[in-house]
Amino acid sequence: MKQPNVFLAVFTPSDSSDAALMRRLLQRDVGAFEELYDRHSRLVYALVLRILQQAATAEEVVLDVFLQLWRNTALYDGSRGPFVPWLLTVARSRALDQLRLNSERQRRREDQTDELPPLLALPDFEGSLDEKRRATRVRELMNSLNPQQRRAIELAYFEGLSHSEIASALKEPLGTVKSWIRNGLLRLKEGLQTAS
Question: Is 65 helix (H, G, I), strand (E, B) or coil?
């Protein structure tokens, strides 16, 4: 009695197991590829999306995973385990690679931004002149303050000391220092407003 051809039985289209589809895929069977994609693409997408948190990028990675499957079908070895865990491992690796690539691109963008040369602009002569006039006016107004007010304001705004630190440095009461600074700033403000 003639034995049935086991080889043909394994490769018949009615056999729908993943392993059988992979064997058909080795023969470049587009139908097997489409069935694998239909069967597993949502699961792969869910995993990749969870890792990347970006739908468009996740879709690209899923397509890349299945393209890799089509090009390198022989990479899957059924004797080492079921197809789905293997496919999800490939997808996870691709997603992590994409995540690292995105991080590297972001880092390079930030590095390039730091290194960009300053934009060339025409000199603003009027703006420079206005700044010089304002600076001269501020110096004049500062010099018109009494020495305690001027020193308290200098310590606060040019040296960054707190009111308490200024009081300690000048050996004056905190209330007095605050009063000097407040009154001095009001005089500076009034002087700048009348100048403009």
Answer: helix
